[in-house]
């Protein structure tokens, strides 16, 4: 699968729900969003059917995301179905981690390879304030549960927000001295219709990295195997874990972008930002071949996103597009 600019597409991010048990300040309004009607959401068998058609074209790696994927019942059964597809080498999960302690063993047994846990604070009161829900989330417990179940690598995504959690950068970085975890600091994107967080809350990655560098000597690192995503990694001498920064606002990654996205209601999106998408669900339900639609989507995949040029207030929340 090559797109119009010759990029090889082998990675699909699948959003399996638009709902969530959190209401992170940067992602969702407290009252939630107008959720998709159940009948519009792809059934697990339908997701599997789409991946079955994409795998022979070169699709190799999957990430299950949302919304919060762990709140959809029987998640392990989807992992099991996807893992059985020939050509699929790797399945990852993006989660807020709340349900990982109870689910990690089942997910690992079903074939989940890797996990990204989003965690914006190590302090319980602050987690509850940022997520606007107190569900007792504790990052270290969640990450250990994944590790104990054999899900590796464990990556931790931290959205750094000025005046909200930017005083915890060193605490997160210190985790990598003790654990083989990959802590990735993500620049806040003030997207969606949320007015609570603005450009004033954005902490540039360079600033985060400078703070980490003050803790000790950092060396560039290749990061976790199969990283090839948008993070740039570093490591403290002898540390088991690594520290990455992700700068979503720049265009640096678009030229090597190897991914497309499937929304919960079955639209194939070729770029996280903008409105380039091809609906697959109805064609699939009518039993039509999907390949012409994949070809159309790839032909339309934009060269780069235009986040900086857009009125960011008009963009959709990441939970809706499977961020
Ligand atoms: N619920 C899962 C989770 O939180 O990991 C998966 C979906 S969530 C939309 C995927 C990632 O997008 C999370 O790491 C979250 O922190 C990030 N994210 C969401 N909105 C964001 C924003 N406005 N700026 C930066 N990152 C954002
Ligand atoms: Fe839910 Fe993830 Fe969005 Fe937070 S970032 S509200 S956990 S979907």
Q: What this model shows, in words?
A:
With 323 residues, this protein is an alpha/beta fold. The protein has a single domain, classed as TIM Barrel. 27% of the residues lie in helices and 18% in strands. It has 10 helices and 12 strands. It has helices spanning 44-54, 75-83, 100-110, 124-131, 139-148, 169-178, 205-213, 281-285, 291-300, 318-321; strands spanning 11-15, 61-65, 90-95, 114-118, 154-160, 182-187, 218-221, 232-236, 242-246, 259-262, 267-269, 277-279. It has a 12-stranded mixed beta sheet with strand order 7-8-9-6-5-4-3-2-1-10-11-12. A hairpin with a 5-residue loop joins strand 8 (232-236) and strand 9 (242-246). The longest helix is centred in the N-terminal third of the chain and has 11 residues, at 44-54. It is globular. The relative contact order is 0.16. Mean pLDDT is 89; it is low at 309-314. S-adenosylmethionine binds next to strand 3, strand 5 and helix 10.
What topology does this entry show?
Blueprint: E1 11-15, H1 44-54, E2 61-65, H2 75-83, E3 90-95, H3 100-110, E4 114-118, H4 124-131, H5 139-148, E5 154-160, H6 169-178, E6 182-187, H7 205-213, E7 218-221, E8 232-236, E9 242-246, E10 259-262, E11 267-269, E12 277-279, H8 281-285, H9 291-300, H10 318-321
Parallel strand pairs: 1-2, 1-10, 2-3, 3-4, 4-5, 5-6, 6-9
Antiparallel strand pairs: 7-8, 8-9, 10-11, 11-12
Bound molecules: S-adenosylmethionine and iron/sulfur cluster (SF4).
């Amino acid at each position: 699968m090559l797109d119009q600019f010759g990029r090889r597409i082998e990675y699909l991010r699948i959003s399996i729900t638009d709902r969530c048990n959190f209401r992170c300040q940067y992602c969702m309004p407290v009252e939630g969003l107008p959720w998709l009607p159940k009948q519009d959401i792809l059934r697990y068998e339908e997701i599997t059917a789409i991946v079955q058609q994409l795998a022979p074209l070169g699709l190799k790696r999957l990430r299950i995301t949302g919304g919060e994927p762990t709140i959809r019942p029987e998640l392990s059964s989807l992992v099991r179905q996807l893992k059985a597809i020939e050509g699929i080498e790797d399945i990852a999960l993006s989660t807020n981690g709340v349900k990982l302690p109870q689910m990690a063993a089942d997910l690992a047994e079903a074939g989940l390879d890797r996990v990204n846990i989003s965690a914006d604070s190590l302090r319980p009161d602050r987690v509850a304030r940022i997520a606007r829900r107190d569900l007792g989330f504790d990052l270290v417990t969640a990450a250990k549960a994944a590790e104990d179940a054999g899900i590796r690598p464990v990556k931790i995504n931290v959205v750094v927000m000025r005046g909200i959690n930017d005083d915890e950068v060193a605490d997160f970085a210190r985790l990598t001295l003790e654990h083989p975890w990959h802590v990735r600091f993500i620049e806040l994107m003030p997207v969606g219709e949320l007015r609570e967080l603005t450009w004033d809350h954005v902490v540039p990655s360079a600033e985060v990295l400078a703070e980490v560098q003050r803790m000790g000597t950092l060396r560039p690192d290749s990061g976790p195997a199969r990283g090839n995503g948008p993070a740039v990694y570093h490591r403290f001498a002898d540390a088991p874990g690594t520290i990455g920064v992700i700068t979503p606002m720049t265009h640096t990654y678009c030229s090597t972008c190897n991914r497309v996205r499937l929304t919960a209601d079955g639209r194939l999106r070729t770029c996280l930002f903008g409105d380039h998408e091809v609906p697959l669900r109805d064609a699939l339900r009518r039993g039509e071949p999907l390949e012409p639609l994949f070809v159309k989507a790839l032909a339309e995949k934009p060269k780069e996103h235009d986040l900086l040029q857009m009125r960011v207030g008009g963009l959709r929340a990441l939970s809706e597009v499977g961020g």
